[in-house]
Structures are given as C-alpha cells and as structure tokens.
Write a structure and sequence with these properties.
By secondary structure, this protein is of the alpha/beta class. It is 43% helix and 14% strand.
C-alpha cells in the first residue's frame, strides 16, 4: 500500500472521493481499529484566545476584529493566567492558547505570558502559537525563526497546535490569507520545532474555495514531511495528529454559499486516515464539524474528539455551535453510547484514564 500511494498522482488519488462512502469508511475504520481498537481519545482542556485584534485580514476569518466583528478585545497576562488557573482547578490538563497577530504586543509580552502560566501551574501542558503566529513574531521583531522557537520553549510552551496551515496550495492560500506565512514557512516552523524533540499538530481548512485536488495535495505534503522527519530521526519530535477543520461560512469575507455535505466531510476524514499512515492520530474536531458528526467520524478513520474545550471563540464566531464546550460527562456518555471506549489522554496521547462502561 505504501509503494502504491507513492506511485499515484494527486489526480488519481483524488478519485478516492468517487468511492462509495462505506467502502472508504470500512478501509479507514480497519486501519484505526488495528491501531486503537475501540478506543476514542479526548482530553480535558481549555481554549484561550488572548486577543482578536489582528494585523492581518484573512478572508475566511470571523474571529479577528473587523467590520464583520466590531468587538475588539485584548486580555492581560493576569486575565489569561486566571482562566488557566480556573480551568486547572476544574481538572484541565492542557491550555490551548492561540490568538490574533496583535500589532502592539511586544516580544516580551508573549514570553512573559507563557512563563507566568508555567511558573504558577507547572503541571499544565501549554499548547500554543500556531505556525503563522510564530512567523509573525519573526517578521515583526526581525528575529531568526530558531530564536523565537527556542525562546518559546524556554518560556514554557510544550507543543505547537496545527493552526495556520489552511490549504497549502499557494494560489488558494493567496485568496484566503494573503500576507500570512506561506506553506513553506509553515513547514519550516514545524520542522525546526520537531528538531528540538517536540511535537505539534497539523490542520487543513477545507470546504471553502478549494477542490478535492487541493485537499489531496495538502495531505500528501504532510505525509512527505513526516516521512522526511522519520528518516532524519529527529529526537522523537513530529506531527502527533492531523485535524481536518471545516470552514465556517458566517461573518467573514469569503462569501461561500454552501457547506460540504456530511458525506463529503466523512470521506475527507477517511481518506486522511488512509493516506497518512505515518501520522498517528486523526482528530475529528467536534467544535468544527459538530459533536454528532465527530462521533460518527470515529467509524471513518478518526480516533480522537479533541477535548472538553470549555470556551471556544474561533469556530463559534463563524457559526459553529461550540461556544461553551462540552462537559466531561457528556463526552464520556456520547462516546460510550456510540459503542466506543472513552479514553482520557494527555496532550501527547499518553493514556490517563479509560472509562469502560459499567454493566
């Protein structure tokens, strides 16, 4: 199968979408069940977005302050710490901190924010600063990429989220997010982070102006990058999970009229599982595709739901029903009701607790 995939063109692999959904689902589910059995992973986490004031104007974004979202805000470091502390006291193991590219924050602000959190809460995992955010810091402050990533690591950042990947095709990317880090730069950020022995995730924003061809190209670029990393044997860093993010249509400037069908979403997740044997986990991010469809996606190659989240601002700003997160009990019971075993994990997929259904 490995050799066959490598020998096929993007056009040929795009025909996977023409397969019956259940044929694709069976193939993807077989791969996930061989690896994980009936386990479905989730974590107890909190999403924090310190500001929506942004130097960039991405057409797909409903989160950043603009005439579509005329409610700018900016949190202090104490505000962020208080949210982290409250979440930790409720059982959160991870804080996921991503933000807009604030034009007025100085470099020290970022490092002080993460070091303050880590000093106060040394056991919480800080997942923060997507590839585009890191690139923004290098350009704004004229620092080498290596310095920025090493400084973030020293300040307490434990892993990078996968945001900013969008779609790697540059023609599409130019229409979506002109001025933000290009695809080569996104890979450069993650490549150096991996060389430090650290993990990150990878995303793909789909369901807007891209084609199936662009999705396949995106997935294959990630496959190639992970393969190159394995050959380099880089201190065990790499991509932990692939996360297909469904584009949300409301309150942005892209003006897309219709969303992909549930079948198209499930096919995309199944194809990702088939084409990415070297990325361990496929996440059905419930805040993007809805909780119910994310549960169904566990039978189409996904093996992870993300987490409880508590508060979600980016997807919900564009219309997703994810603002208030989901309770731990709801997460557990829904996974069990679908016939799976809920497994709480940490940010690096170490298993913390399995919730076997009591008979």
């Amino acid at each position: 199968m490995e050799e066959k995939i490598e020998d096929l063109s993007i056009a040929e692999l795009s025909r996977l979408y023409d397969y019956d959904i259940f044929v694709l689902g069976d193939a993807a589910d077989s791969i996930r069940e061989t690896r994980y059995g009936k386990k479905v992973f989730f974590n107890i986490n909190r999403h924090i977005n310190p500001t929506n004031i942004c130097a960039d104007v991405c057409k797909f974004c409903a989160f950043s302050a603009s005439r579509k979202n005329p409610n700018p805000y900016s949190m202090t470091i104490d505000d962020v710490l208080n949210q982290c502390r409250e979440a930790y006291n409720r059982g959160a193991k991870e804080v996921h901190i991503v933000s807009a590219h604030h034009p007025d924050y100085d470099y020290k602000h970022y490092l002080d924010m993460f070091s303050t959190i880590k000093q106060a809460l040394p056991n919480i995992h800080i997942k923060a600063m997507g590839g585009a955010e890191v690139d923004y810091l290098t350009r704004k402050f004229n620092f080498p990429l290596e310095k920025v990533l090493e400084d973030l690591l020293e300040a307490g950042v434990d892993s990078l989220p996968g945001g900013g990947a969008e779609i790697f095709d540059e023609k599409i990317r130019k229409k979506l997010c002109h001025g933000k880090a290009d695809s080569a730069r996104w890979f450069e950020v993650h490549r150096y982070w991996h060389s430090l022995g650290r993990m990150s995730n990878a995303t793909m924003l789909f369901g807007h102006i891209e084609s199936r061809h662009h999705r396949i190209d995106h997935i294959l670029r990630l496959r190639k990058a992970q393969t190159s990393l394995e050959r380099a044997n880089n201190k065990e860093g790499g991509f932990n999970a692939f996360i297909p993010l469904l584009y949300q249509r409301l309150n942005n400037f892209l003006n897309v009229k219709t969303s992909p069908s549930g079948q198209e979403i499930l096919k995309t997740i199944a194809i990702a599982r088939i084409l990415l044997p070297n990325i361990p986990h496929i996440k059905a991010y419930w805040a993007s595709i809805s909780f119910n469809l994310a549960i169904v996606a566990q039978e189409f190659g996904a093996n992870d739901m993300d987490g409880t989240i508590e508060n979600e601002s980016i997807q919900s700003a564009a219309g997703a029903k994810s603002k208030n997160g989901v309770s731990l009990q709801e997460m557990i019971s829904q996974i069990q009701n679908a016939g799976f075993i809920p497994v709480e994990r940490d940010s690096l997929y170490n298993e913390l607790q399995s919730y076997q259904e009591v008979s």
